[in-house]
Amino acid sequence: MLIFEQSKSGRYAPAQSPLDKADLSSLPEQFRRKRSAALPEVSEMQAVRHYTRLSRKNFSIDTQFYPLGSCTMKYNPRACNSLASLPGLVSRHPEAPESHSQGFMACMYELQEMLREVTGMKAVSLSPAAGAQGEFAGVAMIRAYHEARGDSARCEILAPDAAHGTNPATAVMCGYKVREIPTGPDGDVDLEALKAVVGPQTAGIMLTNPSTLGVFDRKIEAIAKTVHEAGGLLYYDGANLNAILGKVRPGTMGFDVIHMNLHKTFSTPHGGGGPGAGPVGVSERLVPYLPVPMVTRDGDHYRWLTEQDCPESIGRLTAFAGNAGVLLRAYVYARMLGREGMPRVAEFSTLNANYMLKQLQSIGFQAAYPQRRATHEFIITLKKQARELGVNTMDFAKRLLDYGFHAPTTYFPLLVPECLLIEPTETEDKATLDGFIDAMGRILEEAKEDPEMVKGAPYTLPVKRLDDVKAARELDLAWRPGSN
Amino acid sequence: MSNVPNDLKYAKSHEWVRDEEDGTVFVGITEHAQELLGDLVFVELPEVGDTVDAGSECAVVESVKAASDVYSPVSGEVIAINEALADAPETVNQDAFGDGWLFQVKLSAPAELDDLLDADAYSEVMESEEH
User: What integer is the mean pLDDT of A96-110?
Assistant: First the structure.
């Protein structure tokens, strides 16, 4: 039941109401509401019960194993949150002068430096507020670089067919045509196909390495050489940075620009649309184009770098660092890990993934790339089960919910039919991984003995199997008075 | 194994072409393609009058699992689109080779039809993807 449906005229919740009505006399008439907002009128107790009830329905990393491939749903240490919530940080006004913000700015400066170091880039800007914005900033910088050189014939961005959908979308947003590069049967980019299409029209290539197929592209140096020799630049999608953190650096692989999802790799809460943080790092030749603001240090004093300092910058992406809390949590997380801790993230996330892959293979599941070692995530394909038992990937995913596990990513990447993309992350222990493997084995038995039961799952959740086709065909997104 | 009618031509990317032998063809996606996609919830078609090139993206089919580009197997001008799909995308699931057609093209390079696959060759493509 929605909070709106509980509304009764005249009820109100003192604890959640503003103390006084704001004085609006200075607000011009045309900006004022003609009618009051259609807010629900409920008592304090109703509001508390409503949201407590909703929170108990939450299936989250704080309650369950959440091996959602490509999303890096790792545990968020509470220390990050408590330190990011220190009063001096929480209460800082976004327009407070530099002299009042030295502590916050020192954190941001050090975060820039740590990210620069761990990715092997020349400089980092924290400005993009999410992964998609980081991608946009990255490709906008590639564009600015070519334009500054008068190299305006470069109209194409290359992307492998395994890429996240955001990559081609970003290229189009930045005015490029997208050309898809096929993936070979071993999961690596098809180098010969790449060589056949690079040329004076190539602005760059967008790559995720390790890729969405859960394998590390072993030919990355040859790919970098091919694209660079054609005059293009290399963009690194940081979606899978968790697998290589502290082990190998995108800068060393030859990338010119990278975005990082701090809300994944640097363990700040994410899901549900944000806020995230998508800092960008660049090689030497893209430094002038980094988005502002950034923080620099003059002696003991930290100050903002703005358009005046960086006239060739692609500009600002947001008015304020509204995601300051995410950046601070990531800073604390990086400080807690330190130089010794970062490689352990990569080691244990890949160890966990490879352990799960081998165990699942041993009980009858088929790996999509059995000849390859997994990175921090891996793909199994249930096409055999779908064909022989009539129980498909979605049925397995729904049944996992009954066993208390969040489902892995389903039907992505699109290249692999009936796939589950599984990412355990480094924060889970062996017992949890074994519990998941055991549940998968049991579901496989159930699929053989009673396929109809599996196809009807879940049975233990607040909502049963939803008709997602009907939901998509008959969209019903907004509540209106009298609509139910 | 899905149905693959002998009187149609096919593209590797799972579109079919029906030659009307008047310089126009109908284009749709194969039964195999709709099976892979699952229940369609939305179909985005080109506009009548658009020019399409063989091998270029010109439509999108969206299911609950994925949104997929449809590539035109032939070059020419779009002279009709299947407007009924706007309200009933499930027609593609029910009758991929018939009422589920997507658009009709007036050919600008009829020789391209010879480059397309026949039913046997397309069946081999489906089989090789199985393994």
Answer: 96
Residues of A in contact with B68 (CB under 8 A): 414
Out of B42, B65, B90, the one facing A411 most closely (by C-beta) is: B65
CATH assignment at residue B55:
2.40.50.100
Query: Is residue B3 pLDDT above 90, yes or no?
Result: no
pLDDT interval class at A475 (50, 70, 90): confident
B12 CB near a chain A CB, below 8 Å? no
Q: How confident is the model at residue A272 (pLDDT cuts 50, 70, 90)?
A: low
Q: ipTM of the predicted structure?
A: 0.72
- Name chain B contacts of A469, Cβ cutoff 8 Å: 39, 41, 64
Does 3.40.630.10 match the CATH number of domain A80-338? no
Q: Which residues of A254-274 are buried (b: 16+ CB within 10 A; e: fewer)?
A: bbbbbbbbbbbbbbbbbeeeb
Q: Kindly determine whether residue A473 and residue B65, on different chains, have CB atoms separated by under 8 Å.
A: no
Neighbours of A207 (CB within 10 A): 26
Alpha-carbon span A42 to A28, nearest angstrom? 31
First to last CA, chain A: 10
Burial status of residue A314 (CB atoms within 10 A of its CB: 0-12, 13-18, 19 or more) = buried
For residue A227, give the 3-state DSSP assignment.
helix
CATH of domain A340-471: 3.90.1150.10
Beta carbons of B89 and A473 less than 8 Å apart: yes
Alpha carbon dihedral B75, B80, B84, B89, in 10-degree steps, equals 0
What is the Rg, in whole angstroms, of the alpha carbon atoms belonging to chain B? 14
Q: What are phi and psi of A83, to 5 degrees?
A: -75, -35
Do B41 and A417 count as a contact with CB atoms less than 8 A apart?
no
Give A170-199 pLDDT, tens digit per residue.
999 999 999 999 999 999 999 999 999 999
Residue A2 has pLDDT above 60, yes or no: yes
pTM of the model: 0.88
**Chain B closest-CA separation from residue A166 CA (Å):** 13
The stretch A86-95 carries a mean pLDDT of: 92
Yes or no, beta carbons of B64 and A417 under 8 Å apart: no
For chain A, domain boundaries: 80-338, 340-471
Chain A nearest-CA distance from B22, in A, is 34
> Three-state SS for A249?
coil
Name every residue in A having a CB less than 8 A away from some CB of B. Answer: 410-412, 414, 417, 468-469, 472-473
pLDDT at residue B131, rounded to an integer: 54
Query: Which chain B residues touch A417 with a CB distance below 8 Å?
Result: 36
